[in-house]
Specification:
By secondary structure, the chain is α/β, with parallel strands linked by helices. It is built from 16 helices and 13 strands.
């Protein structure tokens, strides 16, 4: 049995789509691990903060800790919403207690006591922020680790929404799975990204689950002409993003299409190993390492095909951006969010997870058939509008109203 508060095709009013004022202005708090860490959740949080602020809500982004070393992103000047980071540095790490020796470890007891005291002190700061909220305030916890502090704070009179920005299967394979079941069980609503994932969580006996897709990150006015012989990938160079699998797939077709190049945008800890792999596969001349880009629309307008080779995803923004720019996508079907965004055979092509031969075949299909490439690109630009920002913002506002009735 499902407990979904709103249909996934809830219409947007012209006012919402145009960025008009909300019927009820609220205080909205987003609480995350960090407010300025590189990554999709941070980008999503700032996008939603901008959208809500534009609708007249008073928005506050709260991070628990600073980002890890090397993972910080600068905050823009002149933000229309407040940002706060609770800790000046990361709290002390503690080990799980598994043995009698662990229980007798005096130094570990001290670390645990210091961590607990610090958590209560930072939760008191949250309580003070929440106490200043007007009636109808909402706390949106974007990551379950951050919920451990919100659970210690005073949230009486506020609606608390806990989110999981990954697929059910990805979460189930991680330590976050037990945390979600523990800390999100009593929130007013737990939100995941797709109906399929919501049903899976309901199967875990959570009766407060709904779903909310991500909004389009941008709506480019100029689509890609799809006339440049380039396949583009955009994402962090990390094992989960599967760029090693992409290189394996590219090696299967690059020799037959020497005029085409694979452009990889992004940076990360795997960069050196991936470049070495590219050389070993004999494809270094056809792979261009572009580094991080601050102009995603520009990068996509110079692409004819987009590829997502991830091992795991939630509701990925990169293919949405590509589709909005009229670039058809090829992706591994690793999560419900991927197959909800890309409709196989209509606006893109999906391969079984990890199947590099099938990924290569789909890439070659779009490389060699410009008519199909253009039809799918045009269809993608149309289809992805179901996630237009105005539509998603109105769904959020309807959810706030529903939960406070």
């Amino acid at each position: 049995m499902s407990n979904h508060p709103l249909p996934d095709d809830a219409p947007a009013s012209a006012d919402a789509a145009a960025g008009g004022r909300a019927a009820v202005a609220r205080d909205v708090f987003f609480v995350s691990n960090s407010v300025n860490e590189l990554g999709g959740i941070t980008s999503w949080s700032h996008q939603m903060a901008r959208l809500f602020a534009a609708r007249g809500h008073r928005v506050h982004l709260v991070g628990i800790t600073p980002p890890p070393a090397g993972r910080a992103r600068p905050l823009e000047a002149g933000l229309e919403y407040a940002t706060t980071t609770l800790y000046d540095e990361h709290p002390p790490q503690v080990r799980p207690v598994r043995t009698l020796k662990d229980r007798a470890n005096v130094a570990e007891h001290r670390r645990r006591a210091a961590r607990r005291a610090g958590m209560h002190a930072q939760a008191a700061k949250l309580s003070a922020l929440f106490a200043a909220a007007r009636p109808g305030g909402v706390v949106i916890v974007t990551q379950v680790w951050a919920m451990e502090w919100v659970a210690l704070a005073e949230t009486a009179g506020l609606t608390v929404i806990g989110m999981s920005h990954e697929s059910f299967e990805t979460c189930r394979k991680s330590s976050r799975f037990a945390r979600v079941k523990r800390f999100y069980r009593e929130v007013d609503r737990m939100l995941v990204l797709t109906r399929e994932d919501a049903d899976a969580w309901i199967g875990q006996r959570l009766d407060n689950v709904g779903f909310m897709p991500n909004p389009l990150p941008f709506a480019p006015g100029i689509p890609s002409p799809r006339d440049e012989k380039a396949v583009v990938s955009i994402g962090r160079l990390h094992e989960e993003k599967g760029v090693d699998l992409l290189l394996e797939a590219w090696a299967q077709l690059a020799g037959r299409h020497p005029e085409w190049s694979l452009r990889i945008y992004g940076a990360g800890e795997e960069e050196t190993a991936l470049k070495k792999q590219s050389a070993q596969l004999g494809i270094a001349d056809s792979v261009q390492w572009m580094g991080r880009t601050t102009d995603v629309p520009g990068a996509l307008r110079q692409a004819s095909v987009f590829v997502l080779s991830s091992r795991g995803e939630g509701f990925p923004l990169a293919p949405m951006e590509a589709m909005a720019t009229a670039v058809p996508c090829v992706a591994f079907d690793v999560a419900p969010g991927v197959r909800e965004i890309i409709r196989h055979g209509h606006d893109g092509l999906l391969a079984p997870p990890g199947n590099t031969s099938e990924l290569a075949r789909h890439l070659e299909t779009l490389i060699t058939d410009p008519g199909l490439r253009n039809r799918m690109g045009d269809q993608a630009r149309t289809n992805i509008q179901r996630y237009a920002a105005g539509t998603i913002v109105e769904r959020w506002e309807n959810l706030f109203t529903f939960l406070q009735q």
